[in-house]
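User: Please go through the entry that follows and flag anything odd:
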Amino acid sequence: PLEMPIIFLACLFLSRFYEFNVNNYLAQPASYLHKMCLKHSETKSNYSGLFQSFLCGKKMQKSEEKERLIRSGIYHLIVVSGGHFLFIDYVLELVRFPMWARIVVLFFYYLMAALQAPGLRALVHMVLALLKKKFNWSVSPAYLTLVSGLVTLVLCANYWRSLSFWLSFSVCMALVLSRSLWPEAKGFMRLFWQGLVIYVVL
């Protein structure tokens, strides 16, 4: 679309020269909710830390277990990522939560998960996707993904230097483009191609 370069340049200017960081205003409530999540999810199991990473976004300490997860290519499934937000939104939609309530729940989960960069990107993307569905915007999934990434960078300019943000954004864009490359793929083949794309990108 003709307006895409304008949107990109505007977001680039705002994020590089304005240096806004929305997380500065969210740090205090996020810290409280994150500590509550860690407190109530702690168990005596050897896998307590793993569970807290999956649920609360706790950073995993350098260990042999973490290295095995990284080598196996499934580390991104353990730490809080866009997939967590998609799953929560899917469940809420199944039980007929209205759009505004789903956005509120996802926002509180972003706070509880310690303001993770992939979390904000996923939250912004899902808010835009929900608004697109609500107001019937005629934009492509790739366009929506790109704009959501740019909006995230405007909201938190230091994510330009965040590896986790760029990995999350790259995976999301790769998945969107893979659907365009293999539009007929369904069932197992669709899962296969999506899994292959994620593995290659990561």
